[in-house]
Amino acid sequence: MSNIEQTLSIIKPDAVERNLDSEIKEMFKNKGFKIIKEKKIQIEKLEAEKFYKVHETKPFYNDLCSYLSSGPIVVMVLEKENAVLANRELMGATNPQEAAEGTIRKKYGISIDKNSVHGSDSTDNAKIEIDFFFKD
Ligand code: UDP
Ligand code: MG
């Protein structure tokens, strides 16, 4: 049975700054993702704090929120069969040093904090995150 899903992807400031957004979008398209919605924005730190609220108790929370709001990002809704998991696979491990060959983070990630992309980690969070950026 088919299971078309949508997931939220963010091209983070380190990648936008290096003009990697077109190349990263090509990687999504080559894997069969459709880019349903897309916008280039810069968010306030307060918005980043809301977006990453699940991480509020983590030691890296403050730096993470400063970083996500530090420059332009590209936010996208991606659609494909089993999109949530497929996107996590294409992104690779959180730490680029541990990411598999052929993944976005292996190819472009600089460090665990500057790891070039965000992707929703579950279908429930995908809905919440898509609403966060595209509700209106
Ligand atoms: N992060 C970090 N230091 C860590 C763990 C995570 O800076 O030790 C950052 C990293 O940018 C990561 C984000 O926090 O992408 C969210 O962490 P999560 O565990 O949700 O990783 P992801 O789902 O992005 O792979
Ligand atoms: Mg996560």
Number of beta strands: 4
The side-by-side strand order for the widest beta sheet comes to: 2-3-1-4
What is the gyration radius calculated from CA atoms?
14 Å
The secondary-structure class comes to alpha+beta
Within CATH, the superfamily carries the name Nucleoside diphosphate kinase-like domain
Order of helical and strand elements: EHHEHHEHHEH
The termini sit apart by 31 Å
| Hetero compounds | uridine-5'-diphosphate, magnesium ion
> Averaging pLDDT over every residue, what do you get?
98
Helix content: 40-55%
What oligomeric state do these chains adopt?
A: single chain
How many strands, which pairing sense, and closed or not: the largest β-sheet?
4 strands, antiparallel
| Apparent shape | globular
The portion of residues forming beta strands comes to 15-25%
